[in-house]
């Protein structure tokens, strides 16, 4: 079971990286890894990326924490899961440092990644959609490694069942504060005016001993820490929402539009495609509600007709014929999926190599000057640190500096990515087909009462 949290780093990036790379917490530094940067000079390399694309902003990097259930995973497995998770959610576009801490009662990963992409120069869009994506990917990888995950208990992600019930009844203090904040953000032109508007609404605004804003509405007994209201209501995001009202207005409209589109696509999919036949005997809700059971029975009949129609369209007269076709599709799907994995690894390796080469050529002149003339070391110590980091990378990967050709590397990356996109598109098309075949197989097995492969072999209907 893994729980994820998000923080934003706006100052002292070097201290944050030093903290997560503490040798006492990471088994003497064994449980530390990085991508497209070195842990010792990551803050400097993040800065070089920002300078390269002339990017500025309050957020320098994002800090994610992935915590595991005590006793469920080893430190090495946790670190491996963290690496998979980092590459999955960042797509090889952002430099990152990953460490696994084992000094607490529970093992947890710390992931700090640059807010600016070193391949495209774009800022990471940390919004509700990317938050959901990070959580889903963490759950998916944990399931693949046999770990438990937290299932969502309410229809609203990020809100507990108790608070969700209060929101439905209109008695949630946190929801009232969120509504007040949204209204104040729309009216305020800066942070001070926002605080004034909140106070005029009868909301006490104070800071705790850690400097974090806490709020309390009129009639409310206890203060609520602003960070507990959700990612959209942290102080940094509220300040950004005040400064960029048009951006967030368009973003909200786009999210609502995407949500409506996803729901429409889901309805169309279930209308056109075959769905699983529901096991009425083990469905608790069907046993408790007669009307619900009747609706499921009608649905099961419809899905059975769709399953039969699918078999007739594909000229599959027996279970043996079906299995042959099913295995053929599955074999093709597995072949393309196995072809994609090496391409992704090649793309990541080339991207990392390009980033190190670009950083090396950018700092080499000043670094060599400082190395020859110690009097200039104070001025160019950061460049020297990055220079030495790049040399270590070249040595570890047997790369000759004289043989580096950035133009050839960029062309190689372009070709690999083009091939990867082509294979990924093939896999995406086959994934939909494979999903449909899996549903059909499950419906056939349920209808015929197959429990295992032995029964299928001995059944005369095969």
Characterise this structure.
This protein has 462 residues and is of the alpha+beta class. The protein has helices at residues 13-20, 42-52, 75-90, 128-144, 161-169, 173-187, 191-200, 235-243, 245-272, 284-288, 290-313, 319-372, 381-396, 406-448, 453-458, and strands at 2-9, 32-35, 61-68, 96-101, 108-114, 203-207, 213-217, 224-225. The strands form 2 sheets. A 5-stranded antiparallel sheet has the order 1-3-5-4-2, sandwiched between helices. Strands 6-7-8 form a 3-stranded antiparallel sheet. Strand 4 (96-101) and strand 5 (108-114) form a beta hairpin. Helix 6 (173-187) crosses helix 7 and helix 12 (319-372) crosses helix 13 (381-396). It is globular, with a radius of gyration of 27 Å. The relative contact order is 0.08.
Keywords:
alpha+beta, 462 residues, 3-stranded antiparallel beta sheet, 15 helices, 5-stranded antiparallel beta sheet, single chain
Ordered list of secondary-structure elements with their pairings:
Elements: E1 2-9, H1 13-20, E2 32-35, H2 42-52, E3 61-68, H3 75-90, E4 96-101, E5 108-114, H4 128-144, H5 161-169, H6 173-187, H7 191-200, E6 203-207, E7 213-217, E8 224-225, H8 235-243, H9 245-272, H10 284-288, H11 290-313, H12 319-372, H13 381-396, H14 406-448, H15 453-458
Antiparallel strand pairs: 1-3, 2-4, 3-5, 4-5, 6-7, 7-8
